[in-house]
């Protein structure tokens, strides 16, 4: 086991995962790659493979945790992974099929993408998220492209996310806010806020790989105060929140 330092631990992960059959590259992601982590932050690592990957090899390393099969996370661009404890540290491993990643990168460069639902992502994810990982993550082993944000995507993605936010707000107003349904209204405003934040950052040409700091980056954190007042005046609070989101950016 390497010395008890973050740098040596990252190097250790690169060695372990890079040696698995079929793996061509390993990248460190999340807050650890961007230097914004806390001492207790997880380690997010992606293994990039070509032509197939057998999770049995990862399972055979013998670390405590859960190792999924390929496709177990819904079959989209997030096609499986593992939650492990390695040397006392929480490590999340994501499977990345290089053929799929290269396809989504080419699609993003043409301004095309699709939306996918994904657990723990309230607004779902765009398929160009895996291209964003290439741009942001730190490569530990192998070689990966580091794409700029495509001009075509800066045109198409904001339109998509704005339209999604508008649909969410319109439905929430008609089905929830006008009928006094506080919980559903608040939940819908949260989703619309994240959709709006995606639009704002896409227009700037900034990659998004998760929702954890999305509202801060888009300047939408003040929405918290508006949502906190919903119970006192649901129609008025909804109108104020919707106006804020539609004017954002």
Automatic annotation (TrEMBL):
Pfam families (alphabetical): NTP_transf_2
Keyword Transferase tagged: yes
Record key words, sorted: Transferase
Recorded coiled-coil stretches: none
GO molecular function: nucleotidyltransferase activity
SUPFAM superfamilies, per the entry: Nucleotidyltransferase (SSF81301)
InterPro entries: NT_sf, Polymerase_NTP_transf_dom
Residues covered by the Polymerase nucleotidyl transferase domain: 21-70
Protein known as: Nucleotidyltransferase domain-containing protein
Organism classification: Bacteria, Bacillati, Actinomycetota, Actinomycetes, Pseudonocardiales
């Amino acid at each position: 086991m390497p010395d008890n330092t973050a740098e040596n631990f990252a190097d250790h992960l690169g060695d372990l995962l890079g040696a698995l059959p079929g793996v061509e590259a390993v990248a460190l992601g999340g807050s650890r790659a961007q230097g914004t982590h806390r001492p207790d932050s997880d380690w997010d690592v992606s293994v990039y493979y070509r032509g197939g990957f057998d999770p049995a090899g990862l399972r055979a390393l013998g670390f405590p945790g859960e190792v999924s099969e390929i496709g177990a996370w819904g079959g989209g661009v997030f096609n499986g992974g593992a939650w492990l404890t390695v040397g006392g540290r929480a490590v999340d491993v994501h499977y990345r099929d290089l053929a799929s990643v290269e396809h989504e990168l080419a699609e993003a460069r043409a301004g095309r993408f699709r939306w996918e639902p994904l657990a723990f992502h309230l607004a779902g994810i765009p398929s160009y998220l895996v291209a964003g990982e290439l741009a942001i993550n730190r490569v530990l082993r192998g070689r990966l492209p580091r794409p700029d944000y495509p001009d075509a995507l800066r045109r198409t993605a904001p339109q998509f996310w704005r339209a999604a936010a508008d649909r969410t707000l319109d439905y929430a107003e008609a089905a929830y806010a006008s009928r006094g349904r506080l919980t559903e209204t608040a939940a819908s405003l949260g989703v619309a806020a994240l959709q709006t934040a995606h639009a704002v950052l896409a227009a700037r040409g900034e990659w998004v790989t998760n929702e954890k700091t999305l509202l801060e980056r888009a300047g939408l954190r003040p929405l918290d105060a508006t949502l906190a007042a919903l119970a006192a005046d649901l129609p008025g609070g909804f109108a104020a929140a919707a106006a804020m989101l539609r004017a954002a950016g």
